[in-house]
Structures are given as C-alpha cells and as structure tokens.
Amino acid sequence: MTELFEPVGDHDHRIALAATGALADLNRAGLLEAGDLHVATRVADLAGGTDDDALLALALAVRAVRHGSVAVDLATVPELAPDLAPGAGWPEPDAWLAAVARSSLVEQGALRVEHGLVYLDRYARLEHQVCADLVTRSRQEPPPVDEAALAAALARVGGRLNGQQREAAERSVRQWTTVLTGGPGTGKTTTVARILAVLADQAAAQDAAAGGGRPGAPGRRLSVALSAPTGKAAARLQEAVDAELATLPAEDRDRLAVESMTLHRLLGWRADNATRFRHDRTNRLTHDVVVVDESSMVELTLMARLLEAVRPQARLLLVGDPRQLTSVGAGAVLSDLVAGHEGDPATPVVSLTENYRSTEDIKTLAEALRTGTADEVLAALRTPSEEVEYVETDDPASVLRADTLASALAVRRAAEQGDAAGAVRALDEHRLLCAHREGPYGVRVWNRHVEQWLGEALGQDLRQEWYVGRPLLVTTNDHALEVYNGETGAVVLGADGRVRAWISGSRGLQDFAPGRLDAVETMHAMTIHKSQGSQARRVTVLLPEEASRLLSRELFYTAVTRAQEHVRVVGSEAAVRAAVETRAQRATGLRQRLQAARAGGSDSGSGNGSGT
Ligand SMILES: Nc1ncnc2c1ncn2[C@@H]1O[C@H](COP(=O)(O)OP(=O)(O)OP(=O)(O)O)[C@@H](O)[C@H]1O
Description:
alpha/beta, six-stranded parallel sheet, five-stranded parallel sheet, 17% strand, binds adenosine-5'-triphosphate, DNA damage, nuclease
C-alpha cells in the first residue's frame, strides 16, 4: 500500500512548480504535495537554511501530519516509496536521523528528534504535554475513598455489572483518570452511568464525614460533563446515561448534576482561534467529573487542550474503542494510552469485552476482525447466517438497490408527512457504508444511484437540491448553530408547504432554513470514517478494490461494528484479505513516552538523539 497521489498535470494544485531537486522529484512522483514543500521551505528559511537531507525530513514530517501521524519514522520512508529514492538513493535511516538531530533545524527548534521519530516542534510539544499531564494526574495523591460507602454503593447500584464493569467502577473511585475501552455493546455507557452514581455517593459520604452534609437535606450535587467529539455522540451518551440512571434509586440520581455537550463546547470554542479554548490551564473546567465518549476520535491537539483544562482533582473518564479508526486529525491517542499502559499494575485502562448487544454472528465477525487472520474473517463471512451476509459480485448495484431504495422511501414517506423524528429514525434502519468518497466504490456515485432509483420509484425528477426526504450529513462543525460534523438529518416538508432541514444533534432535533446549513451532503451512502460513533439496524459495507489505499483492518472493523442486527459485506475476497492484512499504522511517540515515564526515565526521547 502506498499513499501517493497521481498528479493530473502541471496545473494540479498539489504540484509546486517552483520546486527543485529531490523535493521537486518527490512532489512530481506524488509523495509530497505542494503544501508540504511550501511549509518545509518556509520553516527552513526561518531557521536560517539547512542541508538537503534535513530539509527532506522536514517536508516528510509535514506530510506525515497530513496523513494522521504526529511525526515521521525515517526508517519507513524507503518502504513507503521504494522506487522514488532521490539522487543517490534514500539515506540510510540511522545516519539520516543522526544528521537531522545535528541539523540547524533541530538547533533552531523547528524539528525535534525524539523516540526515533522526526517531529515538527509543535507536535512533539503536544505529545510531551499530554504525557506529562497524564503522568502528573496519576502521580498525585489518589482520591480519598470511603471504603464502607464504596462497598455499599457497589452493592446497591453495581448489582447488574459484570466483573470488568465493576472493576471499572472501583478504579474510577480510586484513580483520577480512567480509560474505559470496549467495542460496541460491551456496556460502556451502562458502566459510565453507574460509575457516576458511585462517585456521587462517595462525594456525599465524604461531605457528610466532613460535617458538610446535613442529615436529611440534599447535599452538594456532583457536577458531571458528558462530552464527545460530535454532537450526536454527546446526545446519545446523555440519552443512554439518563435511561440507565432512571433505573437507579432516586437518592443516587438526585446527587448528580449532568450536562452533555460536544468537546469543543465544553472547552469553550473561540471564534477568533481554532486551536485554543476559553478553558485552559489558567481557567480550568469546574466539573467534578469529565466524561469523554468516542475518545478514539479525539486527535492529539484536542486531547492536549482537554487535559490542560480538566482540574487535577476532577475525575477524567475517557471512553472508547481503540480498535476503531483513529481521529481524522493527527494522533492515535486512545490506542497509545492502552498500549502505553500494557503491563502497568496501576494502569488506568479497563477493557470491557463482553458484547451484550450484537447478535452472535456479528460478534464472531467483529472478533475475527479484531484478532483473527484473513482466513478466519472469510470463514466468519461465509458461514451461513441470518445476520452476516457476504456477497462477492461484479455488479454491486443489483445487491444494493433493494435496501437503499427501501430506506430512501421510508425517509421520504415520513418527510412528506412532516414527521421529522420519523424521517431521522428511518435513517438508522439501513446504512450503506463506503470506504471512499470518490470513484466507482465511493459515496458520491452511490448517492447518485440511490437518487436515481428513488426518482424512478416516485416517478419524479429529484434534481432540486432540497428535495423532500433528502437524507443529510453535516460535514463541518458550526459552533454558532451548534451543528456538528457527523450529525445526520433530513429535509422535511413543513405544514406551510416549505421544506426545512432537520438535524439530530447535541440538542435533540433542530430545524433550519436549508440555506443556513452550508456544509451538508446527501447521505444515502456514507463514508466509514463519518459513520464512527453511530449505529444502524442493518448495514451494508461496500468494499473498494483491493488496491485501495484506505483499506485497513481498522476500517473494516469500524464498518462491521456499526451494525446492530444485520451486516452485509459486498466485495471481493482479495479486498477482504487486503483489508485484514493492512494495519492503519500511525507514527506516534505517546506510547513510548508513557512507557519511559513509567520506567522512571524522562519522556523527552533521549534514546535517539534528543532535540530538547
Ligand atoms: N452487565 C450487563 N448485563 C446485562 N446486560 C448489560 C450489561 N451491561 C450492559 N448491558 C446491556 O447491553 C447493551 C449495551 O450496553 P451499552 O449501551 O452500555 O454499551 P456500549 O458499550 O455503551 O455500546 P455503544 O458503544 O454501542 O453505545 C444495553 O442494552 C445494556 O443494557
């Protein structure tokens, strides 16, 4: 798998016409984009110039961030592009790394060489901060525990929890930070709700012991922020936690003051600054407990901002599935946290493995995708099942038509009747997932196919942009409207005969004049990346060709685990094998930093020539 682009001529915006030498060659060959070159040459100029090998490493570090890594591992560059060696060939990796470490770019602070990786300074600092904040949180005095109250609370609210879930609840009381991991349906939300009840009980017991609680009077309530990277995930978390809390005794519920919001809103987004927030180290969040769901989607930058904003003595609960695709932005924080604490007796990580929701056959397939070989995945796909279907075909349209059209018609019917909630519910009946946006296996083409089928079924031309029943997907965060990337909705006919765009997000269902939403797409089909954090009753996964650069085990796993009752995989055996055999690896150093910190060393990366 390479990650090259194919220039479509000199006018391609990814080509830097003024570039010369090795950078120009690698640009024309599709390894580096014009933006990588521009940033690299500008940074090098600011640092007073540098030699070619260091400049090349700098451009590759810029490129790496664009591809989701936080740094570049020079040892992997030759295998990434074996045919593209510049001039005398790729430099020998160790010598190259040592040369970068000695270069003026490192001396001037533009680059850092740490943990065997070459970082742009900003990303090394972010990673260092995340590690330092986590380590500081874990090294401070542990929270006080009222053991008798804990045992009583666990007996009262923990009855239903399995052993792992109970351990998570107990650890969350004893530690400031807990990382709760597990696939869909493993009871993460159930456990979060009960953790909150136990924490509230602890706070009440301690208040009472300190004389703060008046017997018989309601005491201080534990303030809890439930958050997630997307509004939809935050709303879902709140809904699920509310439902779970409703099953608990009133005394446990009443001790909690819970609010839910996106991570950006929690941190206080600023119109004047996209990477800084109102809450930071000097203006911490006031909450006693901060819960972040879907934390596999949180990129390094946002995690750094979160960690500096949470009070040292507030509980932090990071929840997510580290096997899923990582964040769109650079980093793989959740999986690094899990790996970085492997074998650590004081680990904050608790993994839930019992899946209570999916059907048996979907579980078997998901498990094969987590740990199995390609043969095992194919066996799981080919075992006759009511829940898992595998279709190898050259003609996906014939397979996809029935479900996608039925789903589009259901949304349309509800939308025509002005039933926004019904239209949004119908969206979750069936979802078509594609790896790509473009190309024959991409979302754009399949959106068009379904619109054509829908038009034929209705005997209408659906050419107008805001047709009734158009399923919608929000593609960027609009903090002013509180509409967030990944949220879904539909165009619905109002009683006045005008259409409105209804979006289901952090504040429930909201309607907008269509023109106010400028970043929405049609969602008869959806990319697997965008599907993270959502589920549908039935899911069809359309795999691309085996040569697709996006195919990976994580992508396939994420797609399959979106299905609650039925999953159909459409694609060739070669595509299945290519997916299972490819790991979506990112170059990051957080795991090593956490391990080094645990071993008592510094996390500044002295192992391979430090730039700090
Ligand atoms: N220990 C348990 N015993 C029986 N059922 C459980 C247990 N834990 C959770 N469940 C049930 O399993 C289902 C899934 O739980 P939950 O929604 O908490 O999982 P989740 O990990 O948050 O899933 P997702 O990430 O998909 O939202 C729910 O119906 C829940 O009531």
